[in-house]
Design brief:
With about 260 residues, the protein is α/β, with parallel strands linked by helices. It contains seven helices and 17 strands. It has helices at about 5-20, 35-50, 60-70, 110-115, 150-160, 200-205, 250-255; strands at about 30, 55-60, 75, 85-90, 95, 100, 120-125, 140-145, 170, 175, 175-180, 185-190, 210-215, 215, 225, 230-235, 245. Strands 3-2-1-4-7-15-16-17 form an eight-stranded mixed sheet, with helices on both faces. Strand 5 and strand 6 form a beta hairpin. The longest helix has 17 residues, at about 35-50. The two termini are about 25 Å apart.
Length: about 260
């Protein structure tokens, strides 16, 4: 029977449900942020209720924490746990080396902190995020409010020597004002078109005074689950052949509401 989900939501649901199949009882989990992560939290809450699992969750944003708590998941602070068994999060882009751009939702600081504390990171996404070279999606850079214009000038100076095709920066806006992260920082979105050397750029940006964190996630993702509108989910793991699963879209439609 045809499902009523939009193609975009069906793909997100397929990736989300395939990813939570990796969750087992007793795990300490990192919960990502973004529209695909919302589907993952919903699928996880359903799995916990159906299988009577005991999990401890660390959220990467206030909005993810609120959703997870609303759906009955136990959410604690990162400082309350040591290592995490698994983090499941989305991405705005990924390349063949599993290098990522994240931060479209402005949560990349917490996302990177949680991912770095995890034994494994599974990325949930859709085929449109699969790129040969990073850079089509603007790179988010979180900066402190104090002196942010001077920080942007220093970022611009670093970009002048970077292997990129464009160097356009803008301060992210929200409504009638500037976007602020959960930590009260600003986000600078940098349009680069192509990032020839993500590692070198990541190092250069991290050295800029005033930069809190950037959206290049390098060496953190272990697997990527790509959801398709027809319910197929492809799991790619570095060094292994892809695995395909079929997700029940009727079950996806029955997930608890966000």
């Amino acid at each position: 029977m045809p499902h009523s989900l939009s193609p975009a939501d069906a793909g997100k649901a397929a990736a989300a449900m395939a990813s939570v199949a990796q969750v087992t009882d007793g795990m300490v989990l990192g919960l990502g942020t973004g529209s695909t992560a919302v589907w993952m939290v919903r699928a996880l809450a359903h799995k916990v209720a159906e299988e009577d699992l005991t999990l401890t969750c660390v959220a990467t944003s206030d909005r993810t924490a609120a959703l997870a708590t609303h759906l009955g998941l136990m959410v604690v602070d990162l400082d309350d746990v040591g290592r995490l068994d698994l983090t499941i999060d989305g991405a705005d882009e990924f390349d063949p080396q599993f290098r990522l751009i994240k931060g479209g939702g402005g949560a990349h600081l917490r996302e990177k902190l949680v991912a770095a504390q995890s034994d494994r990171m599974v990325v949930i996404t859709d085929p449109s995020k699969d790129v040969a070279t990073l850079g089509a999606f603007p790179l988010p850079i979180e900066v402190i409010q104090m002196g942010h214009r001077a920080t942007m000038d220093r970022i611009s100076a670093e970009l002048a020597a970077a292997d990129v095709n464009e160097r356009t920066m803008q301060l992210r806006q929200a409504g009638y004002g500037r976007f602020e992260t959960d930590e009260g920082n600003y986000v600078v979105d940098v349009s680069l078109a192509r990032i020839g050397d993500p590692e070198a750029l990541a190092m250069a940006l991290s050295d800029v005074p005033g930069v809190v964190e950037h959206g290049l996630f390098l060496g953190l993702a272990d697997s990527i689950v790509i959801g398709h509108p027809d319910g197929r989910a492809e799991t790619r793991t570095l060094g292994q052949d892809p695995e395909w699963t079929i997700v029940d879209m009727a079950a996806a439609e029955a997930l608890p509401n966000a």
